[in-house]
Design brief:
By secondary structure, the chain is an alpha+beta fold. It has a domain at 33-88. The protein is 61% helix and 13% strand. It has five helices and three strands. It has helices at 13-31, 37-44, 48-56, 59-64, 76-88, and strands spanning 34-36, 65-68, 71-75. The chain has a three-stranded antiparallel sheet with strand order 1-3-2. A hairpin with a 2-residue loop joins strand 2 and strand 3 (71-75). The chain is elongated, with a radius of gyration of 21 Å. The mean pLDDT is 84. This is Group-specific protein.
C-alpha cells in the first residue's frame, strides 16, 4: 500500500492581489496610447507637482504635448523616452 501524503497550501490574499494588479498594470501599460498628467504621475510614481516642475516644463516634453480645452495628453511611448532622456541627464 502506498503511503498517503497531505499537502496544505496557504494563500496570502494580499500577495495575490498585488500580483494580479501588477500583471494588469503591465498589460495596460503595453496597450496605452495616450496618457494625461495624472496617469503619468501614477506610472512614474512621482507627485504631480514634481512631474510638472522636473519634466513637463522641459522643451522636449512640450514638443510631444497634445492639448485640448486645458487638458494635456502625451503619447505614452514618446513620453517614456523623454522621461528616460531627462533622467539620464541628472
Amino acid at each position: 500500500m502506498i503511503p498517503q501524503a497531505n499537502v496544505n497550501i496557504e494563500l496570502d490574499a494580499d500577495s495575490i492581489k498585488k500580483y494580479v494588479q501588477q500583471k494588469i498594470d503591465e498589460q495596460v501599460s503595453e496597450n496605452l496610447f495616450l496618457v494625461d498628467v495624472d496617469t503619468l504621475s501614477k506610472k512614474c510614481s512621482m507627485s504631480r507637482r514634481f512631474l510638472e516642475e522636473e519634466f513637463l516644463k522641459d522643451p522636449r516634453f512640450k514638443l510631444i504635448e497634445k492639448s485640448k480645452v486645458r487638458k494635456r495628453f502625451y503619447y505614452w511611448e514618446e513620453a517614456k523616452k523623454v522621461i528616460e532622456e531627462i533622467i539620464e541627464g541628472w
